[in-house]
């Protein structure tokens, strides 16, 4: 039996009413596709490829539930290609070779094949290598979907033959559009249920989904099934979402108010307040990785070199959240929030970069001094490249008197450490090193 959907148009329009709502509501046209306007808006690169039927292999990279599979199916439908869905979880080399052989055969018959590989990052190197000759010959148009950075998860040979498109999490408003469409669609959606649901309840489902349309559709379908006589109560929705509906206004202001409160509590070394605001965000269904990213930022911006381990701990917490998920990962967020709140504070490194950037924007962009340039060729050596360079490891304490800034900035100090935490020791070391000497002219 062939694995090919030889008529993708019919396959896309046919659906089983017993299928999950997310499956039934897949878009049937580009106009129905919500979100990703940075690549699918009028005149954008991917839309032009589809409209001109000039497809090339691609990788769709983005978080779960943003439309990677739907977009691949839609591309096949609009370009009248055979569509082969292929899972990296359940398939191996044997299946790859069988599909490639059939794709090669139908290409000779004048038909094109889109091979859609879900979770392509789960394929090992040898499995990915198996696709290469077929992609190079044009036997298949490869569309890979991944939630992981393709630079690390897809072999370079395959990646070089694919265009990477980054898909973004859907906004709350975009999720609400999808939910309203499902409620109004009698044929595929929940239009026949006449579910009475408020705008605020739709917003709560959208916030809960964290930009994941599949999660939002699932929650809406569960709510519709649980509603008594078509009336969805606040208690029923809380039971469906398994969390209390806390204040998160539609404009998103409360979302930013809460993260601001968390950030400023950490900066103020108030561990209890930091825990409280973190708990508020967790209970409201905030994206855990969003919180983790903000905590990483706090470690850099407000602690810096006063405790260099703060950044290490924040990155470790972010990885733990990604690895463990909910609810176990929440404890990692609590732990790092406490660590950062109790750590010594310094924004000296943060300010140092801002000052250096200002200098880079306003000062004369002088050429790199000759003594700092490498001299890999004879001509460059004759021109004075590398002449006068002092190799630090040849000097006591690996400290030289050589100036490394351009002449107009010689002796400038951008970084001024505080006397808190590790930075106190850093400040002492800088003082022991003494000021930089006045610069000498570049050797001729």
Quickly count the helices: 21
Distance between the termini: 77 Å
**Largest sheet, order of strands side by side?**
2-3-4-1-5
Radius of gyration: 28 Å
Biggest sheet, in brief? 5 strands, parallel
Oligomer: single chain
Query: Class by helix and strand content?
Result: mainly alpha
Helix-strand pattern: HHHHEHEHEHEHHEHHHHHHHHHHHH
Return the domain count.
Answer: 4
Query: How many distinct beta strands?
Result: 5
Gross morphology: flat
Uncertain ranges: 1-12, 244-251, 438-444
In CATH, the topology of the largest domain is named: Rossmann fold
User: What would you give as the CATH superfamily of the largest domain?
Assistant: P-loop containing nucleotide triphosphate hydrolases
Strand content: 5-15%
Mean pLDDT: 83
Query: Could you say what the CATH architecture of the largest domain is?
Result: 3-Layer(aba) Sandwich
Query: In CATH's first tier, which class of the largest domain applies?
Result: Alpha Beta
Helix share bin: 40-55%
């Amino acid at each position: 039996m062939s694995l090919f959907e030889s008529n993708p148009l019919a396959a896309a329009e046919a659906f089983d009413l017993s299928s999950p709502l997310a499956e039934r509501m897949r878009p049937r046209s580009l106009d129905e596709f919500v979100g990703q306007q940075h690549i699918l808006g009028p005149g954008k690169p991917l839309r032009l490829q589809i409209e001109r039927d000039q497809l090339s292999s691609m990788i769709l990279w983005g978080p779960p539930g943003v439309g990677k599979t739907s977009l691949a199916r839609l591309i096949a439908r609009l370009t009248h290609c055979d569509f082969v869905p292929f899972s990296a979880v359940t398939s191996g080399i044997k299946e790859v070779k069988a599909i490639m052989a059939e794709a090669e055969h139908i290409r000779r018959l004048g038909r094109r094949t889109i091979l859609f590989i879900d979770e392509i990052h789960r394929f090992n190197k040898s499995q990915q290598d198996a696709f290469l000759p077929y992609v190079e010959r044009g036997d298949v148009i490869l569309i890979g979907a991944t939630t992981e950075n393709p630079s690390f998860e897809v072999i370079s040979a395959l990646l070089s033959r694919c265009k990477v498109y980054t898909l973004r999490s859907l906004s709350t408003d975009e999720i609400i559009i999808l939910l309203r469409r499902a409620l109004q669609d009698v044929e595929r959606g929940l239009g026949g249920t006449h579910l009475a649901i408020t705008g605020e309840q739709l917003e709560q489902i959208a916030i809960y989904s964290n930009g994941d349309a599949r999660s939002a559709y699932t929650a809406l379908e569960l709510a519709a099934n649980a509603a008594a006589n078509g009336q969805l109560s606040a208690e029923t929705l809380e039971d469906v979402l398994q969390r209390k509906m806390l204040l998160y206004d539609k404009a998103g202001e409360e979302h930013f108010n809460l993260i601001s409160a968390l950030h400023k509590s950490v900066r103020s070394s108030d561990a209890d307040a930091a825990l409280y605001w973190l708990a508020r965000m967790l209970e409201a269904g905030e994206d855990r990785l969003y919180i983790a990213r903000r905590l990483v930022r706090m470690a850099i911006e407000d602690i810096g070199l006063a405790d260099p381990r703060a950044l290490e701990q924040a990155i470790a917490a972010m990885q733990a959240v990604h690895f463990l998920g909910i609810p176990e990962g929440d404890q990692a967020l609590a732990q790092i929030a406490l660590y950062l709140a109790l750590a010594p504070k310094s924004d000296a490194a943060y300010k140092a970069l801002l000052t250096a950037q200002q200098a880079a924007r306003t000062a004369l962009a002088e050429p790199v001094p000759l003594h700092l340039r490498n001299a890999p060729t004879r001509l460059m050596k004759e021109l004075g490249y590398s002449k006068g360079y002092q190799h630090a490891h040849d000097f006591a304490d690996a400290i030289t008197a050589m100036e490394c800034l351009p002449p107009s900035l010689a002796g400038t100090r951008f970084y001024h450490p505080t006397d808190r935490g590790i930075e106190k020791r850093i400040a002492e070391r800088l003082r022991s090193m003494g000021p930089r000497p006045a610069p000498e002219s570049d050797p001729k």
